[in-house]
């Protein structure tokens, strides 16, 4: 099994990524940490707890950063609704978050694990940056990072920037330059692997997990596309099915100021960084395989 920590800001697609990670037998979720992003951290923490409770899992949740390192916080409630996860009545009796911060919980879980951990951040990267700055020793105990964030093409927040990197570009820069192997799961594939209207209608009738996902996913505010982008879910798909995703190694620089703030600049010709690379960038995906896997995963959940 792949031992992972999810660092997340649920968020509709984060909720779907958590659903896959918590229920796939190949994945062992050791810890969930929350961060401010789609909505405030109080809400993202609560939403993570709702998903854990919904599936009756024992995975601990620790609350993380309230705001980016330097930049001012701006949420995405216009896409994800005021609660961040609207449309479904979750149980009210939620477990409590851990009595320690996300950074402390990350350090403890990583250092105490007998195997190296894979970090899967699907929100802004503030917790990860704080962790690496305060406890650099954890780096040797991390297998790799598979992060949703960035784009080689245009952004979804500004024309240059993807939302997670835009939210905290200074943190993204620290993460991309940490020296840990990192895979960038960005808009280049997540805008391709849309959940089709057909998949969505099938999802509703699979089982209660499918109904829950359907009911929240249809509230996604970005309905400009023929299907719904399940951004964060692509990280889990990549962990399980790397053969369905094409990647290229390159150097990724992060713009931290000016009109292109939050842009991930890929050295696509290898010229600027002398052929050196710091990331494995997802550039293409089998969208049909993604849809098939998505429905398949959910259909296997019994609760
Ligand atoms: C990312 O932004 C958030 O709104 C989504 O949850 C995803 O992590 C996509 O740009
Ligand atoms: Ca997210």
Automatic annotation (TrEMBL):
| Domain of life according to the entry | Bacteria
> What sequence ranges are listed for the domain Inosine/uridine-preferring nucleoside hydrolase?
4-291
Question: Which molecular function GO terms apply here?
Answer: purine nucleosidase activity
Record carries keyword Phosphoprotein: no
One GO term of the cellular component aspect?
A: cytosol
Q: Which UniProt keywords apply?
A: Glycosidase, Hydrolase
| Pfam entry (one) | IU_nuc_hydro
GO annotation, biological process: purine nucleoside catabolic process
Q: InterPro entries given for it? A: Inosine/uridine_hydrolase_dom, IUNH, Ribo_hydro-like
Q: Which CDD domains match?
A: nuc_hydro_IU_UC_XIUA
* SUPFAM superfamilies listed in its UniProt record: Nucleoside hydrolase
* NCBIfam families attached to this UniProt entry: PRK10768.1
> What is the protein name stated in its UniProt record?
Purine nucleosidase
Organism name: Lentilactobacillus kefiri
């Amino acid at each position: 099994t792949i031992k992972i920590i999810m660092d997340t800001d649920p968020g509709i697609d984060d909720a779907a990524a958590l659903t896959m990670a918590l229920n796939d037998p190949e994945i062992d979720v050791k810890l969930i940490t929350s961060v401010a992003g789609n909505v405030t951290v109080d809400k993202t923490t609560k939403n993570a707890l709702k998903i854990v409770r919904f599936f009756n899992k024992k995975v601990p949740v620790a609350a993380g950063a309230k705001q980016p390192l330097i930049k001012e916080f701006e949420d995405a409630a216009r896409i994800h609704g005021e609660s961040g996860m609207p449309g479904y009545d979750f149980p009210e009796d939620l477990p409590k978050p851990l009595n320690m911060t996300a950074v402390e919980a990350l350090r403890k879980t990583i250092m105490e694990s007998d195997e190296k951990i894979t970090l899967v951040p699907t929100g802004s990267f503030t917790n990860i940056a704080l962790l690496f700055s305060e406890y650099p020793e954890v780096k040797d105990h991390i297998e790799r990072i598979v992060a949703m964030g960035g784009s080689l093409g245009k952004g979804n927040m500004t024309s240059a920037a993807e939302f997670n990197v835009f939210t905290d570009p200074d943190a993204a820069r620290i993460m991309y330059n940490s020296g840990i192997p990192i895979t960038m799961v960005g808009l280049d594939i997540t805008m391709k692997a849309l959940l089709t209207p057909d998949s969505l209608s099938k999802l509703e009738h699979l089982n209660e997990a499918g109904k829950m996902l359907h009911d929240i996913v249809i509230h996604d505010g970005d309905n400009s596309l023929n299907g719904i982008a399940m951004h964060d879910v692509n990280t889990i798909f990549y962990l399980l099915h790397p053969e369905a995703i094409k990647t290229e190694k390159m150097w990724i620089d992060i713009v931290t100021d000016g009109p292109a703030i939050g842009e991930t600049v890929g050295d696509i010709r290898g010229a600027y960084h002398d052929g050196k690379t710091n990331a494995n960038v997802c550039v293409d995906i089998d969208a049909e395989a993604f849809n098939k896997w998505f429905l398949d995963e959910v259909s296997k959940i019994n609760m």
